[in-house]
Design goal:
single chain; 10 helices; mainly alpha
């Protein structure tokens, strides 16, 4: 008979149920480690409560009150989180629709999503970033055929960009013309026109 126990491996300890102090410690360590929204923290704590159980039996914890307290203390800032997450996604080349979708999944309210929504100039920079990263349109090494052009446009649409922006980028005559299109709104807002 073969012994399946590994030599030197410690047996798993039983998980101790949560109490008020451990729940607060879990919440504090989570907000200290990750930039988060109130909804994400609430989901995390609810999941931990399901996994570990509650030590005090009859009286379940008031997770929304704990999350509200941490927001009141400034440990959680939904607006700051939404702005940072939006900017990060735009730099990676995602469009308005995908940014809005990601913020919704993070529990950011519709009103706040509309408030932090990127302007047209930022959306143009994002489509340019995606084209550079994926070597679409004028950034590619080979001439575009119809099938390849359609696939590139479809990829830009999946990344959350509008059809107009995707076509503008893929159909750009050169890298310089693509960059000029992406930055022309910056020039207008700074008082410089080409």
């Amino acid at each position: 008979m073969v012994n399946n126990r590994q030599v030197g491996k410690q047996p798993k300890r039983g998980r101790t149920p949560l109490d008020d102090a451990r729940l607060r410690d879990l919440a504090l360590s989570y907000v200290a480690r990750y930039a988060t929204s109130a909804a994400k923290l609430e989901r995390y704590l609810a999941r931990k409560l399901r996994e570990l159980g509650w030590a005090d039996g009859a009286v379940p914890p008031d997770i929304p009150a704990l999350v509200a307290r941490y927001a009141e203390l400034g440990y959680i800032d939904d607006e700051g989180f939404a702005r940072a997450r939006s900017a990060s996604l735009l730099r990676r080349g995602y469009g308005l629709r995908r940014v809005n979708q990601a913020l919704g999944q993070d529990g950011i309210s519709t009103a706040l999503r509309e408030e932090v929504a990127p302007g047209e100039a930022a959306r143009r920079h994002a489509v340019l970033a995606l084209a550079r990263k994926r070597r679409f349109g004028p950034f590619g090494a080979i001439e575009l055929e119809r099938d390849r052009r359609e696939k590139q446009i479809a990829a830009m649409l999946r990344a959350g960009h509008s059809l107009d922006f995707a076509r503008e980028m893929v159909d750009a005559a050169s890298e310089e013309s693509a960059e000029q299109w992406a930055y022309e709104l910056d020039d207008e807002t700074n008082g410089r026109t080409n």
